[in-house]
Amino acid sequence: MSRDTQLKERWEQLVNILSNQFSQGEDLDLDAIIYLIGVQELGKVHSEYKKDEKLNLMHIAICRLLEPYGFYEFEFFDEEGWPHYKVKEELPPLKAGEQSVLMKEAIVNYFIERELIS
Q1: What is the reported pTM?
Q2: Contact yes or no for 63/80 (Cβ under 8 A)
């Protein structure tokens, strides 16, 4: 099985699992899944978030997702429990499709690590 085919199958499996759990079966998009990862990484699942906090949650998720690729490094948790990352290497210029594939691959790997999918 090619890497692209495997990624596509794992992505679809993950979207189905998360959509059934968090949106009554309506497919979650990439941004929604990134947001969920941010909430999970923060660890404050039952909180209400303001618009700027939601953007910060997505930033946390992106940093965490791209950390294994060497782009970010965890630094510390602040006094409110929010994780902070530093840039280790700038992301190369990517086309929209390439960004999407990178993020999907990173998300799939994140949930493989957590044994939600295999």
Answers
A1: 0.92
A2: no
**CA gyration radius for the chain?**
15
Distance CA 107, CA 115 (A): 12
pLDDT tens-digit profile, the chain (118 residues): 577 899 999 999 999 999 999 988 799 999 999 999 999 999 988 788 999 999 999 999 999 999 999 999 999 999 999 999 999 999 999 998 999 999 999 999 999 999 999 8
The answer to whether the beta carbons of residues 36 and 46 sit under 8 Å apart is no
Residue where the block lists tokens 């970010």 = 72
Query: Which pair of structure tokens corresponds to residue 66?
Result: 């791209």
CA distance 42 to 81: 7
Spatial distance between the Cα atoms of 107 and 104, rounded to a whole number of angstroms: 5
Element (H, E) at 85: strand 83-87
Nearest to 81 by CA among 51, 53, 48, 44: 44
Which two tokens mark 12?
């679809």
